[in-house]
Amino acid sequence: MRKEKDRPEAALQNQSGQTIKQGDSTTPRLPHIGTMHSRALARLLAGRKIDHHQFQNETGSYRLSRDIHVLGVRYGWRIERAEYQRAVRDGQRIAMRSFARYWLSPESIAAIGPRGCAFVDAVAQFEKRAAA
User: Fold this and answer.
1) What is the sign of the dihedral through the CA atoms of 14, 17, 18 and 21?
2) Angle (CA) 39 40 43, round 5°
3) Which of 122, 38, 47 is nearest to 74 (CA)?
4) Are the CB atoms for 40 and 62 separated by under 8 Å?
5) Nearest to residue 75, comparing CAs of 44, 118, 96, 114?
6) Using CA atoms, how far apart are residues 72 and 102, in angstroms rounded to an integer?
7) Predicted local confidence at residue 1, as pLDDT
8) Are 116 and 25 in contact (CB under 8 A)?
9) Where are the alpha helices (DSSP H) in the chain?
10) Residue 91's Cα: distance from chain center in Å?
């Protein structure tokens, strides 16, 4: 038996009990500070476009696509994405691989208002303490 969270069409509810569909940006929520979700979202709220390589270099996590998915499904963020090709070394040969770059629209960033700035600052403080 599949759990409800495993079904792609399953709707999630936020803390207020409102139904959130994937990508519903009318009720975006902020994840807990210190999670990889929060670290990805802080970069997006700062107006950056991020990809797997940047995120891995900055956080040590190679699971950016998972964090982006969770931010969309569980937290209600509408995150833009664009695919691009990049040459990577695959053993002894070089091969072209597809990657994605993610960002938030200026409207999404503006909609969260001062809470977004405070969130970005809080995540930055967390990362400073974690690096010490």
Assistant:
1) positive
2) 90
3) 38
4) no
5) 44
6) 12
7) 40
8) no
9) 36-45, 52-59, 64-73, 106-112, 114-131
10) 30
Give one word for 13, left, alpha or beta, with left for phi > 0 and alpha for psi -120 to 50. beta
Q: Say if residues 2 and 64 touch (Cβ distance below 8 Å).
A: no
Beta-carbon contacts of residue 43 (< 8 Å; ≥ 6 apart): 50, 55, 58
Q: Are 119 and 42 in contact (CB under 8 A)?
A: yes
Q: Collapse the DSSP code of 107 into the 3-class scheme (helix H, G, I; strand E, B; otherwise coil) and give the result.
A: helix
CA distance linking residue 35 with residue 45, whole number of Å: 15
Q: What pLDDT score was predicted for residue 62?
A: 86
State how beta strands 93-103 and 50-51 pair: antiparallel
> DSSP secondary-structure letter at 17?
S
| Block residue for tokens 């600052």 | 121
Q: How far is CA 64 from CA 11, 39, 91, 99, 107, in A?
A: 23, 10, 23, 11, 22
User: What is the distance of C-alpha 47 from the center of its chain?
Assistant: 13
Please state the pTM of the whole predicted model.
0.76
With a cut of 50, which residues of the chain have pLDDT below it?
Answer: 1-25
Tokens of 49: 């476009």
Query: Looking at residue 132, what is its pLDDT?
Result: 84
